[in-house]
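Hi P.,

Sorry for the delay on this. The queue was packed all week, but I finally got your sequence through. Input first:
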Amino acid sequence: RNMSSAGPEGRKKMRECEGLIDSLVYYIQGAIADHEPNDKATENCVCILHNLSYQLEIELPESYAQSIYMQRRNISNNDKTPGCFGTRSRKVKEKQQDTPLPEEKSNPKGVESLWHSTLIRIYLSLIAKSTRNYTQEASLGALQNLTAGTGPMPLAVARTVVQKASGLPSIRAMLHVSHPAVKKTAVSLLRNLSRNTSLQNDIAREVLPDLVSILPEGVPGCEAACETTASVCYTLLNLTQSSAHNARLLLSAHGLPKLIAISINDSNMFSKASRAASVLLYSLWSHTDLHSAYKK
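Then the structure:
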């Protein structure tokens, strides 16, 4: 577990170690089958896999990446990717929808297992069944790592989490735990998932009211809470900027008074949350058909 956090070279060596990843996955599967998701060894295994999934798509050897994405279209590196601010361009949306997904192997070995649907379902199972905070956080963190990029792998993992494995209810439950790091990682994962335009309506329907419910009534109490609040706001921004229906959902969940209270804070320490709330409010105002409802 310590070695897996030693940086890019350490991760590379461990990913290349024959049988290591397979053994970790095998152990976790056995622990779940035996109804023992809370033992320390399972926590260690998940934390290792979490670390090995960090920057996975970037760090894969070029030849290996090409073999995974045989169907991948040539997309210029100069294309702009959507950020937190501003609306998405039509080209970006079309590219995201049309990107072919990597074909999944029925019997993955080694590094192939790290983004395979089998392991994704294991993470979701641990999130639902384990009561160990480090195991929950590592499982959420691994999924966060795997959905962090803009290539075919993150898109495939996101679709598996939301549509194939029906993972949103388990992630939603983590928004309401008392452990701040677990909650923060769950929000960060949802923020990654919400960047995928094809999944936004599913995510909004399942978790938008919950996201609004965990927003503070005013200024967040500490820096960690400030970061979580900012991340919630950017997730809501992704879900609402292209959908008046989702913006109305936010309104129905009584999100507007909270956002206004957060946005007017002047403290430098909490400016990240304040700025995020302001950006979201600005975006919500672009839905002109909702102006009268906002004013009420």
